């Protein structure tokens, strides 16, 4: 949930490695490293026994343990910068590789595959340089620790022999001291061996903690009654996550069930931003959005989603079967899946495929044409008959015949009292909308009855429910500094 939320707010690379961090933390907890902490309580017990033999033996064991810990600390400090850099570069290389795979066709067609490979190899060279630098220091300290361990073990025998000669301990105590020293240093040795895992787990925990702390906990919300599809927007101001300048300012309109709203405007005028805010993907900085009489922020997102349909510009599909895509990965209502496909005029297309509804799609619908993906996305949008459907440039991949079908589909949904918001530049498609909203540089310049709809209603047999008779025209312009923003 936190990964999805952070992705929606604009962060990207952090989420790519979140599951890797979780795996690192899980492996540390379930591995051998934590066992060293369970052996640690025996350290003072064996040390006390050595002190009871002779204070010099206790001092020797305590100093030996301190020197070994100091070696491990110096190892971590001197190698940490190299290993941290290697980890960050490795994460960046993996992220770049994953993003490049999403655009492999463009890379092949434009002949930039070698350039991308060169960039990736640059990351790998930097990773290897940092990793080798850290490994050299770690290896050197490891060998020094092993040598010191052997010297310490021999040293306690020498010290014990001297004490025996002086008559301060017996020969049996000397042998026992050698064995006890091994017991005293055993937990320290285990901790040193687990030191690298501990550092990796600590960094993974810190990154996961940052990820989770940046996500507000979800509070349980009361279940609201099913909406009819009336949508009211009042004084809406919003901007994409991470952007300080508002891209939408002062948007206000009202729609009744069955209305079709055509949203038009120049590129960058805020049309897609408006769609994302209405879908509760991006938050509204100011203003209110009502679904019937309830503000959209009072809805539980999972519950709200069942009343919303959405077709993005790219008709994004998930890896999996067509049935799973249409059912929004629920896979438990075949009747509703077929009904949605029939409403979207996609049933015949699906049945013409070798595996029908069980046809497995690749990443983002790989294997289907743009128009075929669009039909599957339309079927998913109307699955379980939502009350509001938002379509962002749905005519992008459609030919003339498919566009005519899309118009019929939208008119059919309107008859079923579904409220539709249609973002498009196609005047033929816009002509079926009874309401029109025009945006310019993030501001609303017109909302009211669609003049194109008035010209074409005589040739259409579709009748629309009455909507609020609002006609708003804005003639003021933005200051230059706001317009440039």
Protein architecture, described:
- There is one protein chain.
- By secondary structure, the protein is α/β, with parallel strands linked by helices.
- It has 2 domains: 34-193, ABC transporter type 1, transmembrane domain (ABC transporter transmembrane region fold, Up-down Bundle); 231-484, P-loop containing nucleotide triphosphate hydrolases (Rossmann fold).
- It contains 20 helices and 13 strands.
- The protein has a 7-stranded mixed β-sheet with strand order 6-9-10-3-11-12-13, sandwiched between helices.
- A hairpin with a 2-residue loop joins β4 (286-291) and β5.
- α3 packs across α10 and α14 (334-343) packs across α16.
- The model is unreliable at 456-485 (pLDDT under 50).
What's the domain count? 2
> What does the largest sheet look like?
7 strands, mixed
Fourth CATH level, the homologous superfamily of the largest domain: P-loop containing nucleotide triphosphate hydrolases
Envelope shape: elongated
Helix content: 40-55%
Helix-strand category: alpha/beta
